[in-house]
Amino acid sequence: MSTRIPFATPPMRKQPRQTRSRTTVEAIVQAGARILGQRGWAGFTTNAVAEAAGVSIGSLYQYFPDKHALIDAIRRKHLDDCLAAVQKPPAGKSLRQYVEQLVDDMIAVHSGNPGLHQVLLDEVSAAEGLRDPHSAFETEYLGCHANAIAHYRGGRGSAADALTGTLVSDVLDGVIHNAVRRGELESTAVRTELVRMLLLYLTDVAGL
């Protein structure tokens, strides 16, 4: 039986537009990530988050109608960090340098709060839009991988590049997510073998 907590995510009450409000929302999201990582879903409350963020509960509710909306913001922040890691251009790097940086950056994204990522993976289900394999995030994320493959193949992009990029993404995400679950994310051996696996695939199977 799944232990994941399903929910329909309500939108934020309002978007922060001024510097002060953006700072407040950022503090709330960061505090929420810490609380979720430390206490899991069962110990995650808006009161605890507000206290950790140093804001009133009323200030929190100005932006987030409930803790589901807050978790959605935490997840989206994580996805933004993942996207930033794969958006770095491959130009000027050898294939090995590119793969090593990609692996290191993705490990770094998940290392700051591994407890949080374990909760997001195993306890809290994603909002519908984030589960959609054709979502804007998924399209851009996989597109970055495909573009990198096309760069090293010297082409403009093709269905083959897209498939290769998707498989690279699946391997990268799968290994890192399972390393988070096992508490092995800081393992040098995991990092070394992940780099070797991707390089072997890209050089021997994908013809790079």
Provide a descriptive summary of the structure in words.
The protein is mainly alpha-helical. The chain has one domain: Orthogonal Bundle (Tetracycline Repressor, domain 2). α1 packs across α4 and α4 packs antiparallel against α5. The longest helix is centred in the last third of the chain and has 24 residues. The N terminus is likely disordered.
Low-confidence region ranges: 1-8
Task: Note the overall shape.
Answer: elongated
Going by CATH, the homologous superfamily would be Tetracycline Repressor, domain 2
Helix proportion of residues, in percent? Answer: over 70%
* CATH fold naming: Tetracycline Repressor, domain 2
Q: What is the name of the CATH class?
A: Mainly Alpha
Would you report the number of β strands? 0
Average pLDDT taken over every residue: 86
Which CATH-level-2 architecture?
Orthogonal Bundle
Distance between the termini: 43 Å
Beta percentage is: under 5%
Largest sheet: none
Structural class: mainly alpha
| Radius of gyration over C-alpha positions, nearest whole angstrom | 19 Å
Order of helices and strands: HHHHHHHHHH
Number of domains: 1
Q: Counting H and I runs of at least 4 residues, what is the number of helices?
A: 10
